Request: fold
Amino acid sequence: MEFRGLFGGGLKMMRTIEILLVIIIITAAFIISSFFAVLPIPRRVSPLNLRRIALTTLQMLDVDHDLSETVFKPEDDPAWGELQIALSASLPPNIVYNLTVYEVQSGSSAQLYRFIKSISNAESLGIGSDAGSYLVASSNVTFNVIPEKIGESGVGGTLYILNCSDARGWWITGYTAQSLAQDLYNLLSPYFKTTIMVNNTDQFARILRGEALSNETVQNAVIINTFGEAVPIPSEYCKSPYWDNNYARYCHFLGNMTRLYNWTWASIVGYPFYYVSNTVSLKDDQNGWGIWGMNQTAQRGMYAFLQGLTNRDYTTPDTSDIYKDVGVVTLSSQVLESCNYYGIYPSPYQTSTRAIQKSKLNTYTNLTVGLLIFNEKSECYPGALYNHRNGTKIEGSLLALGLTRTPDVRLTAIGLLSYYKPRLYRSEYTASNATRLVVLQLGQVGGV
Amino acid sequence: MAGSTIDHLVSVTVFLGAMLLFISLFNQTLQTAILYQRHRYLATKCSDILDNMLLNPGIPEDWGKSNCTPYGFGLQDPEFTQYRLSPFSLMRLMSVAGEPVYYSKTGQYYSNVTVGFGNFLLVPFTEAINYSLATRLLGINGTYGFRLTVTPIVTVSISKLQSNPLTLSVNVKGAGFPLSNAIVSYCFINVEPTGGEKNYPAFTTNYGNATTNAEGSVILSFPDVDETKESYVLIAYAHHSGLIGTGYYEHILNKENYVVPFISNFGNESGEVLLAHSWDVHGGDNPAEITYNATFVLLTEDFTLREMPLGAGKVGSLNYGQDPQHAYEKITIPTYNPGILVVTYRKSANPQDSGVVLMPWGLSSMAFPIVFGDDPSGKEWVATDIRQVIVNNVAYQAILALWSLEGYSVVG
Reply:
């Protein structure tokens, strides 16, 4: 009767039955979903970054290359025990570890990593662990760097270093032009196709005539004047009209040649072209400070050079000061980056007493700054490489470092490298079995 | 008809009741999952912010070596990569571990990282980077709170075993584990109360090396030292498989009147330190004039100390209760190489009443810890992360505690 009352007697309680069925279904759904929706244990909710801890621990243990030395020692060496003590001491007490060292094999071996040794302070690292790895090289490995040669893929690639024995330098106090030339040769010759020491003013004259000294390319060359504020003058130019305005005309001629051959002329310190020097032809001249074999062109030299560089006819140059004393200056970010790349580290702070005023360059509208070696200061360029542009084409450049004496030739070198950007191809001499991989796997114990 | 109506009423009531129950149950499951996600996100954020602090030097990158206010926060040593921190950037953080010190003669409060008597590091609030600025620079102002703790991994504790002959025990341990076979390089500084020029105090140094035993300790003996007449300091550097730690022990005869060094300025090339009379800072009994001699020593790679000459103010006298113009002396530390300022002093009227105080120049020179940021206690959910870092070759552990300030309940 009850059954009929429920299902047969007009199905009076059918909706209630249906609801009960729905409740059963939803309950089942909830139970099933709860069964699958297993939330992680609290440690996984807010985990320590074990991978980072492992990496930083390995880096810390290798701060004085102790780790690098230990992993290459024999397996029974006491250093392994000390490494284990250091590991235990440096990690928090609730962290267990397993440090495994593999040898990285090279050549045709099918197995890339060969197990060497493992040290651990626990049988198991628990349910969750993470690892950091660190590659160390043996001290037997030597690395080789092959620089790209400037001019390798085009014209140019010649470096001339003025090393004239018949000229004198100024503001290179403490050095001789010859010692600076040798330092520059050591620094820069790997980066150029050909490096030539210009040993006297006669050789310099040949270059000015466009003649090669030993089959090198004169066009697009770099010329470094190691004589500081003085510039060597060949005897054949110690005459009219080059001696106009205390040889300012000669400086104009140098600017002209720089443009004509698309040279980069580098002045390492102080006022460029402030004096001209030839110990034979100018033996009866002195520079005003008692140095014989030298003539003071003064400020006119730089103006005249810029006239020549920017393809202007020679006019009697200005005698006003193109430079300013701006005090302490800093290397530009581009050059700082190059310091790291090329591994040349002059002090990033230098004193500039001969910074070129920007306002004085306004008249040379086709002269642009190709590279800031030092950051601008007080509307001046303490050190920069200037390009003369003919449309989009560069025709001649001047690198001028308006620093106080004594010169640091590394600044000239890093300035040129920052501008030409030769690449470095690094390669490792693969002394066999010289690299080992250290894997530190960490796990947490205690708690949940 | 009535049966059908009852059926409707019962079914609807049961249905609604059941739905409310299930919505509540599902909601609880979802809420737990959402909380899980938020906690997980907080942990990830903690790791990111810690790396952000430790892997960039800030802007400008040498802000630790000047008095400028940075506009980018970072603690990495700009001369290195990876997890190497600048000892000077750390020194400019406003410590929350010690009570700030007020010095009435300058009218300033100083962040206090002092570790025991005689080992001072007091940085003026005006030069220190406070928590509020750091959160703004990190872009988490109002969204997250944090506390950064940078502590040395290797603890070098020194205790006295006996006075005659003077015997000291040096104990070296890591995070709960003794460092056996560690090399201990030590420098024993003995104060000579009138040993300097014009009877100013001076000191002599005695260097040595020793190795710890299986318990991580080593006994050092100094038989020539008479504790009743001499003040001294032992600075010990322990190194073991790349881990380096520092400890110090002082014996001071005159603790009533001493020199308190305050950092007053971080210049571009040098730092300036004020030397004040302790009575003007902490008060006390029996105040008296003191005579001092300040020396700056650099730690070399072989763990010996190399003296670096100081300029004006390196010797002088300090009297208590003076007007501000005459209350303290200024000295300039002419370098940003980490080292220790050693100030020997004596009572002017009684030369035997001597002492010595130390101040690290660069946090790591004396392995000082730093605690920076807000207090995490009472916060609902705090995520932490750890990195092992190097501060001028000394091994430290950086721990960041991070919590959310966004207001939602983070405990399920």
Summary: The first strand of chain A starts at residue 95 and ends at 104.
